[in-house]
Design goal:
The protein is an alpha/beta fold and 505 residues long. It is globular and about 65 Å long. It starts with a helix and ends with a helix. It binds 2-acetamido-2-deoxy-6-O-sulfo-beta-D-galactopyranose and calcium ion.
Length: 505
């Protein structure tokens, strides 16, 4: 009996605690290719981002915050599902591909929905659409709405790929049915001008790839015919996403909501609105970061005006590290000046070295989170489980861990280990050590001018003393290397699949 009473008290306490758990609104602002050194509060570059800084300085600014991957789709997959992207063979950079999240899989927005939240995404998607050939003139499904979002206003892949149209809840926006859209990535140019054939029609010249259909003077990846009335205006894209994000918040603000606000900047093609042209002195790449920073400031102001700021968690991060020339001549290299988007880290987008995955990473909750700079190791894979724990859901994930203390309560410990991914290869971080297995292929990606991390032997770095990974310690610490290889193999098990084929024996 005594035992029964104790158990009842325990359960009463536990469930009452659950009822009392907060249900803050959550906005994850997710930039595309924003580097560790691109946010001025990190103090590593010269570009100024005052609006992000304000949020960073009043929240927790993580110095060891990671995207799961050095490219976009895998990072988004991991953020959405709490599963390492290398476990899913389809989680690679997508171009016109089908949805890579199984509609039965648990996701971050599904978890929020199960706890009574409204859920929306505005911005870049890049997780695929449909489950067979996609007809853009009809309802497009499955997509974001089938994996947990009540509302979606997206571009399908990236700004450099067709279709160059917005898709709202499965329908292309402003489509004239008399001018249907056709797209392909196979080389059929429909007899229309292309970047390859018609350089004279371009306002921005391509450097590598990006030489198919021309839209608004910008050559793209893939061919598109029709859909003229639906085509987006590149220079208005930031304003459009901001308006749609605010509009979404205005429709759901009386209930708890989760908004995934996924910015297109500073991914190529970099097309700042004219009012931001020249604002950074660094050419279009700097200008679109200033533009993105302004959007974040406007969103913040909007939350203040609507009386939502006290009850809204804001997270700011990026899907992968920076790149300067990612396929267009846009003066990103020439006008960089003293700025360091890589923040002193080695590599960049596409790389197994630090600059590929270590990104700006900020959590903010007015009045709840105390300003802090945290060196704890945290990743975007942990959002699902951490938010689940914060709002009292029992949902867990395969590879994420509950870091709600570290993210939202200024206490607790981060991860001790993490397997990062870059273009179908993986590396292993354990505390302050990083082990990169040997991989086939060139150590250097010439087109983008980035060291990607392929080497003929295992590499071992100690980030504590050598953040820029200059000194390979594999010969000096063979036991440490062996331990790390063993643990890496334990975690990855049989799930490495194609990654294994790339590893040199
Ligand atoms: C690459 C594109 C690059 C970029 C990337 C995706 C070429 C030559 N390069 O294939 O420009 O679009 O895909 O970037 O086409 S990501 O940030 O969405 O992963
Ligand atoms: Ca990206």
């Amino acid at each position: 009996m005594k035992k029964f009473i104790l158990v009842s008290i325990f359960f009463a306490f536990f469930s009452c605690n659950k009822v009392d758990l907060p249900k803050p609104n959550v906005i994850i602002i997710y930039a595309d290719d924003l580097g560790y050194g691109d946010v001025s509060s990190y103090g590593l570059g010269t570009l100024q981002t005052p609006n992000i800084d304000k949020i960073a300085n009043d929240g927790i600014r993580f110095t060891n915050g990671y995207a799961s991957s050095a490219t976009c789709s895998p990072s988004r997959y991991a953020l959405m599902t709490g599963t390492y992207p290398w476990r899913n063979k389809n989680a690679k950079i997508l171009t016109g591909a089908n949805l890579i999240i199984d509609t039965t899989e648990m996701t971050l927005p599904k978890m929020f929905k199960s706890m009574g939240y409204q859920t929306g995404i505005v911005g870049k998607w890049h997780l695929g659409l449909g489950d067979g050939p996609v007809n853009h003139n009809e309802f497009i499904s499955p997509g974001p709405n089938e994996v947990g979002f009540d509302h979606s206003f997206i571009m399908a892949d990236t700004q450099d790929r067709v279709p160059t149209v917005y898709i709202e809840n499965g329908f292309v926006v402003n489509l004239d049915t008399n001018d249907p859209i056709e797209i392909n990535f196979k080389g059929n140019d429909y007899g229309l001008p292309s970047g390859l054939k018609n350089p004279e029609l371009l306002s921005m010249m391509w450097h590598h790839g990006h030489n198919a259909s021309i839209v608004n003077g910008v050559p793209r990846i893939g061919f598109q015919r029709g859909g003229k009335s639906a085509m987006w205006s590149d220079i208005d894209m930031a304003d459009k996403f901001l308006d749609e994000a605010k509009k979404y918040v205005s429709t759901v603000k009386d209930e708890p909501f989760f908004l995934f606000y996924t910015l297109q900047q500073p991914h190529v093609p970099r097309t700042p609105h004219p009012r931001f042209e020249g604002s950074s002195g660094m050419g279009p790449r700097g200008d679109v970061i200033v533009e993105a920073d302004w959007c974040i400031g406007e969103m913040y102001k909007y939350l203040e005006e609507e009386g939502l700021i006290d009850n809204t968690i804001i997270i700011i991060s990026s899907d992968n590290g920076p790149v300067l020339n990612d396929g267009y001549y846009d003066e990103a290299v020439e006008k960089l000046g003293e700025h360091d988007p890589f923040g002193g880290l080695r590599g960049g987008k596409y790389s197994l070295f630090e600059a590929g995955t270590r990104v700006p990473f900020i959590t903010y909750w007015k009045g709840k989170i105390k300003p802090q700079v945290s060196d704890e190791l945290v990743t975007q894979i942990d959002f699902l489980e951490s938010f689940s724990s914060l709002i009292g859901s029992d949902i867990t994930s395969k590879d994420g861990i509950d870091l709600s203390d570290v993210f939202f309560r200024n206490k607790g410990k981060g991860r001790t280990e993490f397997v990062l991914e870059a273009t179908s290869r993986t590396a292993f971080r354990q505390n302050n050590w990083v082990m990169i297995p040997p991989y086939k292929g060139s150590p250097f990606n010439e087109s983008v001018n980035i060291e990607v991390g392929n080497s003929k032997k295992h590499l071992l770095f100690n980030l504590d003393k050598d953040m820029s990974q200059e000194y390979d310690l594999s010969d000096r610490y063979p036991e440490k290397l062996d331990d790390m290889i063993k643990r890496y193999e334990e975690i990855t098990g049989d799930d490495l699949g194609e990654v294994k084929e790339l590893i040199l024996e």
